């Protein structure tokens, strides 16, 4: 499964999301919206204003959502 996280360097919820994904043994790609302006546009197009935005297969969400991460792992 492909997991992409739209993030920024000082985002505490982003770092919590990385730790939770690592704990579940899931691979992911991080996109820093401060370095890639088009990524910020993507986040807005998905309807979000809060980071992280996690895109996994055909679903997506924003914020630190450990229950959603556990669902991905199962």
Provide a compact summary of the structure:
This protein is an alpha+beta fold and 74 residues long.
Secondary structure topology:
Layout: E1 3-7, H1 12-23, E2 29-32, H2 37-45, E3 53-56, E4 59-62, H3 66-73
Parallel strand pairs: 1-2
Antiparallel strand pairs: 1-3, 3-4
Explained architecture:
With 74 residues, this protein is an alpha+beta fold. The chain has a single domain (3-72), classed as 3-Layer(aba) Sandwich (Glutaredoxin), CATH 3.40.30. The protein is built from three helices and four strands; from the N terminus they run βαβαββα. Strands 2-1-3-4 form a four-stranded mixed beta sheet, covered by helices on one side. The relative contact order is 0.27. The mean pLDDT is 95. InterPro entries: GlrX_NrdH (IPR011909), Glutaredoxin (IPR002109), Grx-like_ET (IPR051548), Thioredoxin-like_sf (IPR036249). Belongs to the glutaredoxin family. Keywords: Disulfide bond, Electron transport, Redox-active center, Transport. GO terms for molecular function: electron transfer activity.
- Please estimate the helix content: 25-40%
Instruction: Provide mean pLDDT, rounded.
Output: 95
In one word, what is the shape?
globular
* CATH architecture descriptor text: 3-Layer(aba) Sandwich
Task: State the end-to-end distance.
Answer: 12 Å
Keywords: Disulfide bond, Electron transport, Redox-active center, Transport
Organism: Halomonas elongata
Protein name: Glutaredoxin-like protein NrdH
InterPro entries: GlrX_NrdH (IPR011909), Glutaredoxin (IPR002109), Grx-like_ET (IPR051548), Thioredoxin-like_sf (IPR036249)
């Amino acid at each position: 499964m492909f997991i992409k996280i739209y993030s920024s360097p000082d985002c505490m919820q982003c770092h919590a999301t990385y730790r939770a994904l690592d704990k579940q043994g899931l691979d992911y790609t991080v996109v820093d919206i401060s370095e890639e302006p088009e990524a910020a546009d993507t986040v807005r197009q998905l309807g979000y204003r809060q980071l992280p935005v996690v895109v996994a297969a055909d679903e997506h969400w924003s914020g630190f959502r450990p229950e959603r991460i556990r669902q991905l792992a199962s």
